[in-house]
Structure formats: C-alpha cells, structure tokens
Write a structure and sequence with these properties.
globular; mainly alpha; 4 helices
Amino acid sequence: MSRREYLVAVIRLFLAQSGAPARASRDDWALAQALYARGVDFDRFSHAIRLAALRRLSRVGTPTPVRSLAYYCQVLDHLADQRLVEQA
C-alpha cells in the first residue's frame, strides 16, 4: 500500500466511525502520517478501531463522539503491548 493509499484509508476508516467529525483535521492527517512513518500496519489500525468501537459500545450510557484520530492511539499502544507480552 502506498503512502497516499494508507493515509486515505486510515482517514476514511476514522471518519466512517459513529460520532466522527465530518472532516479530518490537520492533526488527524499529521497523525495518520506519523502512523505510516512508524510502520503501523493498516490491518492493525483497523483492528484497533474495531476494538475501540466495541469498548465504547460496552460502556453504560451514551458514548461521547470521537473527535480525533488520536483517540485510537491508546488502543494501538495497548495492542502493541499485548504483542510484546505474547512474544516474551
């Protein structure tokens, strides 16, 4: 996947989530570029989005909208930590 394809795919997936803004911000685009530069696999990012959505749905009450791509970085970090534990 080319850099441009990756960035567009990440932003589209983010914007397709319930409660996401209508447009990605400059910070969202910059973060997508940082994810690409870090070598974050798109499938892993997609998995993090789905996991975050499930977590939000399992909470009591109405979840607040996700306004930034940065929300998903915590889930990505958690998945990375799990991978390190599994490899140890």
